[in-house]
Structures are given as C-alpha cells and as structure tokens.
Design brief:
There is one protein chain. With 256 residues, the chain is an alpha/beta fold. It is built from seven helices and seven strands; from the N terminus they run E-H-E-H-E-H-E-H-E-H-E-H-H-E.
C-alpha cells in the first residue's frame, strides 16, 4: 500500500520541524518546505530519512504563488500523490507597537504570507487531492496552523492578529467546500509555544502562564502541536472537519 504523503511548510525549525518529524514517525513520507535551502532543512531531511520515511527538501517562498503548483508537481513526481497539506509557515510583525503606528509594509507582509499564500496553497492542494479518487484507507486533510491570536486580540501585534483571523476563516471556507469530497480541513491554533520565533518574549510568557494566563501553568512545546496535527492527519478524530483545535493549555477558555 502506498504511504501517505505530507507537505509541511515552514518546516526548518520550531513547530514545522516537529510536525514533519512526527508525521514521518507516523508513517508519512514528507516534503519539508522552508524559504531556502540550508543546514536546518538538510538536517531535517536527514532525520526524516532516519525515521524510515522518504523525504524531500522543498525550498520555495510560499508567497510566490507561481511556485506553488510546481512544488506540488515535484512532490507527486518524487514522493507520490499528496494526501496531507500542513500550512505552518508564517511571519510575525516587523515591530510590536501601537496599532495607530502599524506600517503598510508590515500589514501587507503578514497578510501576504499568513493569509494570501495560505489561501492559494489550500486551493492548489485541494485541486491535486480532488484529481485522485477517494480511498478510505488514505485519509486526506488540510491542516492550517494559525494562532490563538486568530481569536484573542493583541494590540501590539494587530496586523498579525488580522492575518491569522483571515487564515482561520479560510480554513472554514475550505472545510465547507471539501467536506462533500471527504477531505477534512482544520484550524490548529497554538498558544504560548516555545520556539525560535517566540524566543525574545518566551520568558515573559512563561511567567504569565505560571501566574494563571493558562490553565496548565507552563508554556507548550512544538511537539505538543505536532502531536495534535498528526492525530488529525491520521484520522484519529474521525467524522470531524472545520473545527478549531486550540493547543493553548486552556488559555482561551472564558472564565471569571
């Protein structure tokens, strides 16, 4: 039986790296994307191969829409038909600050990568998924890794919040379109996760989590998100689609 094939964007480090490795350990062949080739991507591909999976380094800028279809063609040629897309790549704000001071450049950057690129990669992947007959033994899914800030407002990162809220709605729209085809779509929203991107602020988040911001009084790890994504990709939450899965230690639970 052919192995499932996943594309993980932004896989060079942090959450994307953990997802790519966990999928490989769970029986997937993996195309690992990063912005450019380098030590991080090469090391990841070697680790995926060591886990017994076929691995493909796939460096390209996801916001280059013309490159998306070519990337998926290469995956199909070298690994086989795509079964799983994990849209994980994203960018933060250029500078935290007052929403009244946000630059057009920072706003457009967040929207271009976090929302527009995600939308069109969902689109091109969906067309590829639909080109092959449905096989119940090979679950098909699109898993978009957004953020708790798709739900919770953070004024110093307002343009980031707006882009992640857009990504969350994109997930819902594709879930509606692809549900009749048996393709599940999810919105995974990480909370306080210790990654290279959060390194400059993680100590303050760690203290806030301990002080009660999260129900679990600690920050999460990339492996926590990877476990959730892999559960979704392997259909361990059957008969579900369109859902928001918060990996946030209970941070967003309303309480008083």
């Amino acid at each position: 039986m052919a192995r499932p094939v996943a594309l993980v964007t932004g896989a060079g480090r942090g959450i994307g790296r953990a997802i790519a490795l966990e999928l490989a350990r769970s029986g997937f062949d993996v195309a690992a994307n990063d912005l450019a080739t380098g030590v991080e991507l090469d090391t990841l591909v070697a680790e995926i191969s060591a886990a017994g999976a076929a691995a493909l380094a796939l460096p390209f800028d996801i916001s280059d829409l013309a490159a998306q279809d070519a990337a998926l063609s290469r995956i199909e040629a070298e690994l086989g038909p795509l079964t799983t897309l994990v849209n994980n790549a994203g960018v933060g704000v250029m500078q935290r600050g007052d929403p009244l001071d946000v630059s057009e450049e920072s706003y457009d950057r967040c929207m271009k990568v976090n929302a527009k690129a995600l939308f069109f990669l969902c689109q091109v992947a969906a067309k590829r998924l639909l080109a092959h007959p449905r096989d119940p033994s090979r679950p098909r899914s699109i898993i978009n890794v957004t953020s708790s800030n798709a739900t919770a407002a953070s004024a110093p990162r307002s343009e980031y919040c707006a882009s992640k809220a857009a990504a969350s709605m994109i997930s819902k729209c594709f879930a509606v379109r692809l549900g009749p085809e048996g393709i599940a779509v999810y919105d995974v929203q990480p909370g306080l996760i210790e990654t290279p991107m959060t390194a400059p602020v993680i100590d303050s988040y760690r203290q806030r989590a301990a002080d009660g911001l999260c129900l679990f009084p600690w920050v999460g790890q990339p492996e926590d998100v990877a476990g959730v994504v892999t559960s979704l990709a392997t259909n361990r939450l059957p008969y579900t689609t369109g859902h928001v899965i918060s990996v946030d230690g209970g941070m967003l639970l309303p309480r008083f």
